[in-house]
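User: quick one
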Amino acid sequence: MAEPAIKNSEQIDKIVDEGIDTGIARLTPEKIEQVINKVLKTETGARLKTYVETCVHCGLCSEACHYYLSHDNDPKFSPAGKVKQTIWEILKKKGKVDPEFIRRISRIASTECNLCRRCAMYCPFGIDVAYLITIVRRICHMLGVTPLYQQDTAHSHSANLNQMWVKEDEYIDTLQWQEEEAQDEIPYLRIPVEKEGAEIFYSVIAPELKFRAQLIYQAAVILNVAGVDFTMPATPGWDNSDLCMFTGDNEMMGRLKKAHFETAMRLKVKRIVMGECGHAFRSVYDVGNRWLAWKMPPIPVIHAVEFYYELIKEGKIKIAKKYEGAVTFQDPCNISRGRGLHEMARYVVNATCEEFIEMHPNREHNYCCCAGGGVINAGPPYKMKRIKGNRIKAEQLFAAKARGAKVVIAPCHNCHGGIEDIIHHYGLDMELYFLGDIIYKIMEKPV
Amino acid sequence: MHDIYNFVSGPLVWVSFIIFFGGILYRLISMAVLAKKKDVIVYEYMSLQYGLRSILHWIIPFGTVKWQKNPIFTIVTFTFHICLIFIPIFLFAHIILWKESWDISWWYISDIAADVLTIVVIASCIFFLVRRIVLPDVKYLTSISDYVILGIVAAPFITGFWTYHQWPGFRIMGIIHILSGEIMLAAIPFTRLSHMIFFPFTRGYMGSEFGAVRHAKDW
Amino acid sequence: MEKRTVMVYIVITLLVFSFAVISGFSQEDVSTIQDSAFKEKMRPPVRFLHDEHNETALIEECNTCHHVYEEGEKAEDESSEDMECSECHALDDGKNPMSLVKIYHVRCKRCHQEKKAGPVMCGECHVK
Amino acid sequence: MHNISSWAWEIGKKLIADTGKWKDMFENIEEPYVSPDGEKIAAVVKTGEMEFSVCENDAPWERRFDKVWYLKFGPDNRLTALVSDTGAWTVAVDGDVWENTFDFVWNTKFGTDGKNITVAAQKEMEYFAVTNDIPWETGFSSLSNLTISRDGKRVAGVVPTVDVSEGEIFKFQEGCYSAVVDGKPWDTNFVNVWDMAFSHDSEHVAAEVRTSLYDYTIAVDGVPWDKIYTSVWMPQFSPANGSVTAPVRIAGKWTLARDGNPFWNRSFAQLWHHMYSPDGKKIAAIVAPKFGRWTVAVDGKPWSLTFGDLVTEAVFSPDGNRVACIGKEDGKWTIAVDGKAWGGVYDMVWQPVFSPDSRSVAAKAEKNGRYTIVIDGKPFKDSYKALGDPVFSPDSEKILIKGIEGDADGGKYYRQVLPITDITG
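Assistant: Done. Structure below.
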C-alpha cells in the first residue's frame, strides 16, 4: 500500500507532453505578460481580489486535498500551496514570468488539481481554490499551453460538439445498434430518436458510445421497463460533456452548452436526464449555463442518480432480487458537493443492494477520485501521477474492503476511470460498477 | 513625552479610527462596485438564508467538520479571536478613556480577567508563530508579511500587558501600546487582516452556492 | 579594608539616612486621593503630595481644584475643601463610578496635558 | 410554406384515420406524424420479425425495410423516411426509394416549397450531401452543419479540408476545416466553422468561424470579416440589402455587428437567434438584458417583459410589425407577443404562428399531458392526445387543427377547420 510519494518536481518534469512543450517553445516573456494581464484585467475582479487578500496563509485547507495527503503531506500539493505557486506568483510579478514558469503552472493547474472543491469546505473563509485554479487554466489556455490529450478533446468538442471525434452518423448508428441488441432481451424496447414532445431527453457523453456502449443498452432497458417517455436527438448537442470547461476555453464551453440546451428546447422535452457523469453535470448545471447568462439550466437537468431515485421511489423500477455482496459507494464531487445527491444515492444503493458499507470520509467530505476536473483527460503521460496522487483513495477503499465491501459503486465516469486504475495499481481486488449496472442486474424485467 | 502622549492619544486616535472605519467602508464599497462590474454572479447567487447558515456553522466552535478535526487549533483560534475583539472593548482602562473623551461607557471586565485573557492572546500568537515555523505546509505558505501581521496583532497586547504591570520603561511602552493599537486598526482594512471584513462575504457566498444552488453543506 | 570600599559604605549609609529623614519630614504631606463613593478599587490609590504639587504647579487658589459651581457658574470666591468630590459629582445611576472616575481624571490629567507637566499615563499615578 | 390556399378550408371535421385500429394491424407502432395540410397521418410500424414499414392513413407502404427512422413530411406534404434494406441506406419518399444507396443517411432537409429533399450521407467513410437522389461529386472525411438554401437548391456544410488525425493539436490549430457549398469547399481554411446561412437569393453563404483558438469572426463566401471577436453566433443575411449581421461578443458582452462593424448601439449579457422581418427592415433577437433575465429585442430595444428561465422560438409576423416568442418562468411555459405575455401558463408550448394578416397568434400547448390550440391567449375547449401545429387559413379567419382524439389505448385522427372565433369568442 505505502508507495513512496513522487518526489515532485524532478519526476513530474520528466513527463513529456507535446501540448505543453510545444506551447512553451512558442512563448516569449512579452506575450506571457500581455496575456496574463489581459485575462486578469478583463476576466477577473472582486472574487480573485478578495480570495487572494483574505487568505491568511493558515494551511487549514491542506488536509482537504487528496494530492497533499497522498504525497506524504508535501506542502506543494496543498490547495493554498498550489495557489501560492501559481496565482500569488503571477500577481506578485504582475505577469512578468518566464515560459518555464508557465510550464509549471500548467502542470499544477491541469494535472495536480481536480477542481473537486473539497478545500472550500476546509477553508474557514470558503475561498474557492477551484475557481483560482480555473483562472490559471484559463491563462494557460490563452497562452496555448495545455496538455495534449486535454487539448485534443477540446478540439473534438469544437469540431464535432462531442468529446471523442464521434461523427454524426456514428452516434445515430450506435444508438440503433444498441437498440437492436437490447430488443433481443426486451422485444418492444426502443431508443426513440428525435421524438418531439417526449418527457425526457436522455443525454450521454461520447465515451459511452465509444467504450461503454453497454451503458446505453442498460439505460435503454431501464427507461423502457420503467415506461419513461424519452427521446435522444439525432443531431450534435447529444453530448453533455464539456472538457472545454476544464481547459479554460470558456467560449467553446458556452457553445457546447448552447447546443445541448437548444437541442432539448427543439425536442420540446420537459427535462434532461443524463447518464452517470459528474463533470458534465457540473458543466450543464452551474458553469456552462452561467457563461451563457442562464442563471439556472433553462431545461432542468436531472442526474442519473436522482433519476434512479425517482424511478425506484415511485415504483417504476421494481427490484427482483437485491444485489448480493457488500458494496461501498463513491460520492462524486460534482453530484455530492455539486448537487447534494448523496442521500438519494444511498436510498438507491440500499434499495438495490443487500449490504452497504460506507467509506470514510463520505458524502460531501468524500475524497476526490483524482480523475475528474479534466485530469484523466490529460491522458496516459499523467496516468501514474494521477494514481500516485490518490494513494489516500486506495487507503480509503482498502478500509472499506477490510470491513467487507467487495464492490465499489461509482456513479460518475471520471470517478470510474480513476478508481479503476487505483484498484488495479494498488491491487485492491474490488469490483467496480456504475449504479446503472447494479440496477440493470437486479431489476424486474418482462420475460 | 507629553507632546508624544498628547499626539498618539489625541489626533492619532482619530486618524486610526478614520482609517479603520473609512478603510472598511472603502474596501466594502469598492469591492461591491468591482463585483457589480466584473463578478455579477456573486449578486445573483448570494442567498441570505444559506449564506447565514454557512456563517453560523463556521463561527460556532466545532460547528464544522474542519473544526472538529483540529480541536487544538479550533480552541486556540476561537479564544484568540474572541479575546482579540473582547479585550480592547471591555477593558476598564479603555473604557475610562472613552468616558473621558466622549462620555460613553459600558460594562467592563476585571483587571484580573483582562490579564488572563491577554495572556491567552499572547499565547495564541505564540502558537500561531510556532505553527508557521514548525508545520511544513504552513511554513510553505508563510512570507515575511505573515510575521509582520502577527506582530501587528500581538504588539498591542504585549505592550498593554507591560504597561499595566508597570514594568521598567512602562511609560515608553504605554505610548508604544497606543501606537501599536492604532497601527493594527489602520492595518485591518488594508492587509490580510481584512479577512475580518470579508469573512462574511466569502463564506456567505460559498454557503450560498453550496446551499441554494448545489443543495449541499459546506462545513 | 580598602579606602574605596569604606567610601562606598559611607555613601550608602548617608543615602539611606537622608532618605529616612526626607521621608520623615514629608510624612505629614503624603496623602492619597480618597473618596468614600469608591467602593471597589480598580486601581491602586493615587499618591498625591498636596502642598508640593501646588507649589510646583504654582496653584494659589484652593478653588482651582476645590471649586463650587452655582447654577452652572463657577463661584469665584467660594471653595469646597471640606467636601468630597462625590458630594456634587454624583455617580451615574447612583452606582456607576465611571463618571466620578472621569471627573478626577479630567481634573488631574487634563491639566497635566495642557500644562505638559505631571503624570498622564495610568501607571504614573496609580502606582503599584 | 407550400401553397396553402389549395388546401381544403371548408369548415368541418373529417376523420382521416382510426389510429386505434393500427394496433391490430402491426406488431408495434411508433409515434405518429401528420402532414402540414393535415390530410395524412403516418407512423413507423413493425410488420414482422426485423421488418418495418410506414403506415400512412390506415395503409402501410408496400415496401418493407429492416430499419425505418426519421419520418418527416415535407412542406409539400410528401412523406420521407430514412430506410435500410439489408444494410444499405437510402431515402424513401411516399414509399418509393431513391436509387442510390449509402452506408448511412441522416438529417433530412427540405427547401421551403418542399421540392428539394436533401440528406447527409456516408458511403465507404466518405461524407457528402445528397439532394433528390443526386450525391455531391466529392466526398469528405466528415460532414456536419448541413444547411440548405431557402429554395433547397443549394446545400452547404462543414468539412475537414486538411487531413488531421486525433492528437495533432497544432496542425488542427492551423486550420483544417472549411465550409463546403454544393460539394465545393471554400478556399480558406479555418480552425472551426459552425452554423451558416444562405443569402435569400441562395448565392452567398455566411458562417461562424474560428481563425485561431481565440479569434472568432464571420466569413462570407470564405472571406472573414476584418474584425475578430471573442465569440460569435449564427450570422444572417438581410433580405433587403444582402448585408450580413451576427451577434458578436466584445469584452464579455454581446451586441449585433453588421459586416464587421458595430450595428446595435447597446450590448447584452446574451444575444442570439436574431432574425429579419420579412421585408428586411427590422431585426429581432433573443437577448438577456441582464444576467438571468431573457426577452426579445427589436432593433436593439428590449421588451420590458422578461423571463427567468428562457426565451426561445421568436418569430416575426408576416407584416414585420409584430414579434411573438416562447417564454418560460419558474418552470411554466407561455407565449409572449409584442412584450405582453399570455395569461395562461402551460407545461409546454410550441412555436407561435401568426395569421397571414398578422392579427392573430396561435400556438400548440400542453397541460397535464393533453394538448390544445391556444389563439391570442384563449385555449380551445377540446384537448387532444396528440396534436399537429396549427395553421391559419389564407384569409386568417379559420384555423386548421390536426388532432388525435382519444386516450392512451385508442385514438382517432381528425382534420378539423374552424373559424378562429370559435376559440377566441
